[in-house]
Amino acid sequence: MPETRGRISIEPQGGVLVLKGAIDESAGLIGLLERARDHRLVLDLGGITFINSLGVRDWIRMQAAAQRGGIAVELRRVAEPLVHQLNMIIATRGAARVTSFFAPYACDGCGREDALLIDAVANARGLAQLEPPAMTCVECGAQMAFNDFPERYF
Q1: Can you give the C-alpha Rg of the chain in angstroms?
Q2: How far is residue 147 CA from its own chain's centroid?
Q3: Is 20 helix (H, G, I), strand (E, B) or coil?
Q4: Is 62 exposed, middle or buried (0-12, 13-18, 19+ CB in 10 A)?
Q5: How does pLDDT run across 23-36, given as a tens digit for each residue?
Q6: Helix (H, G, I), strand (E, B), or coil: what is residue 52?
């Protein structure tokens, strides 16, 4: 059963906490650290739709408390609203390890635009060189193009 805090729901799935909704001042993210197992907290953020400035502040406080407490934070399936914050405000990254994230792609063949999941571990070398991984359009099978500035996104 998911727990609801303001506009966000938190559902444990195995050793992962799945977050969905909007992160704002009511999210109480620091409370997530109590759910760490063996000094490790794994968050699935694919369902995050929005984060406001107070949510960013709460996120930064959670990251700082995790570092102080020796809790390793792993971020999986990071949704685009959070990716933008991680790239704009260095403190939002903390010491967290991003293992996968959604990124914008567009297909010149059929016009489809989509946020596609990138495995940050498997594609680490290319991402470090600002090279987005190749993606195939699910609609027409054509090669999709990364639809943002790699230097801003990666």
Answers
A1: 16
A2: 18
A3: strand
A4: buried
A5: 999 999 999 999 99
A6: coil
Neighbours of 69 (CB within 10 A): 11
Look at the block and give the residue holding tokens 């930064």.
60
Percent of the chain predicted with pLDDT > 70 = 99
In this predicted model, what pLDDT tens digit does every residue of 104-148 receive, in sequence order? Answer: 999 999 999 999 999 999 999 999 999 999 999 999 999 999 999
Which residues lie across from 119 on neighbouring strands? 100
What is the token pair recorded at 103?
């990124």
- Decide: helix, strand or coil at residue 89: coil
DSSP 50-92: EE-HHHHHHHHHHHHHHHHTT-EEEEESB-HHHHHHHHH-GGG
At 56-100, the pLDDT tens digits run 999 999 999 999 999 999 999 999 999 999 988 989 988 999 999
pLDDT score of 5: 77
Three-state SS for 42? strand
Question: What is d(CA 92, CA 95) in angstroms, rounded to the nearest whole number?
Answer: 9
CB 109 within 8 A of CB 137: yes
In whole angstroms, what is the distance from residue 82 CA to residue 79 CA?
Answer: 6
Question: How far apart are the C-alpha atoms of 97 and 45, rounded to whole Å?
Answer: 13
